[in-house]
Amino acid sequence: MFNFNVRLTPKEKYRRLLLYTATATVLMVLFTIGFITVYVNSYNIIHAEPMEVLGFYRTADGIGVIFFNHFFELI
């Protein structure tokens, strides 16, 4: 049997929780940036017209946004 109960003071537990949370957040952000980079580069290799990742446009009806080459009307 393994005992994973580590005896820490509440301050040390809180500090460790913040460290693990910050590490997980940074790793998720880096993974997302890498995924988007690979996705856009792969799309641009296959298609003649490059992908527009993010763009805001004013249309006759209101405001719209382009996200990964898909237009979404906001207003």
Question: Can you describe what's shown?
Answer:
The protein is of the alpha+beta class and 75 residues long. The protein has one helix and three strands. The chain has one helix spanning 10-46; strands at residues 54-58, 63-67, 70-73. A three-stranded antiparallel sheet has the order 1-2-3, with no helix packed on it. A hairpin with a 2-residue loop joins strand 2 (63-67) and strand 3. The radius of gyration is 22 Å and the shape is elongated.
Amount of helix: 40-55%
Q: Which sheet architecture does the biggest sheet show?
A: 3 strands, antiparallel
Rg over CA atoms: 22 Å
How many β-strands, per DSSP?
3
Judged by helices, strands and strand pairing, the structural class is alpha+beta
N-to-C series of helices and strands? HEEE
The low-confidence parts are: none
DSSP helix count? 1
Shape: elongated
Strand content: 15-25%
N- and C-termini, Cα separation = 59 Å
Mean pLDDT across the residues is 90
Strand order across the largest sheet: 1-2-3
